[in-house]
Structure of Transglutaminase family protein:
Amino acid sequence: MPEFYIQHLTVYSYQNSVRDSANQIMLYPISDEYQQVIKQDVKISGDPLVDIYRDYYGNEVGVFTYNEPHTELNIKSKLKVETISRPLPVDDMFATLQWDKLEQLKNQIPYIDYLKQEQFSGLEELRQIVRPERKTDYTPYQASLHFCKCIYDNFEYIKGVTTVETTLDEIWQLRAGVCQDFAHILLVMLRLINIPARYVSGYICPNKNGMRGEGATHAWAEAYIPEYGWLGLDPTNNCIANETHVRLAVGRNFSDCSPVKGVYKGGGDHILSVSVLVGNEDNLQADFGDIIESVNQTVNNRNSYQRHIEIVHQQQQQQQQ
């Protein structure tokens, strides 16, 4: 049973002084038979009172307000979590019977939410790619693994070309991005063949194989498999998410699972910086001046996707000349 120590620091830096910062945090890992939180300490600037509740999807959510004027907001979570490897599906039931069982679930709660399809201009194109696969002899388990590999093989992992606000259209056109982009495309593909699928936020922890996104915040998808339950699929690494993936929250998409979000009174731009340290010992020396992940939310840095498209377009023009 692996044990992981995780430190997660979120820093909001404001151009001007702000106040009445109301925030929601989803930094409390899921506790169930395959994952247990041994201890956790959450510290927030100004030491505000944090009210905790469970949302519609079963996630533990904290809300707080920092009323005093401030130019920076720090939210730090330090935790120890234990994970247990989950057995894989046996997958010995006839494929047709499994698809019939999924058909019976599509109008039942909570599966309705996990089958709702977000509309985007590339949806029909993706539907034409996915539809023939449903006509094969794949079981839902086999189909899920197949689409996970399809994304891994056909999408390029590039940091910085997308943001949390990047749309499905942009991801589909670019065929590149990071873990949350790959997870969103996999959700679309699974839902198109009537497999309930949900978004998962969390951490991917170090292991001997080494994986993309290791030691950082991560995102993947879960597919509902008849007679088994929710199966974690990580298209960024083309693997099943198991004991090295620590789950924070689940939902329909990223917006349901955002680790930190909020609003405030005040003007000017702000910068969001996120730093995550993951290890196997309770002696992580955090140098949070060296930010591992940094998301600049100022207007000037919003268009990294557009810059990448322009570069690709220029390269295509040069090849045609």
About this structure: The chain has two domains: 3-83+257-303, 95-256. The longest strand covers residues 3-25. Residues 287-321 have pLDDT under 50 and may be disordered. Helices lie at 95-105, 123-134, 140-154, 168-174, 179-192, 254-257, 304-320.
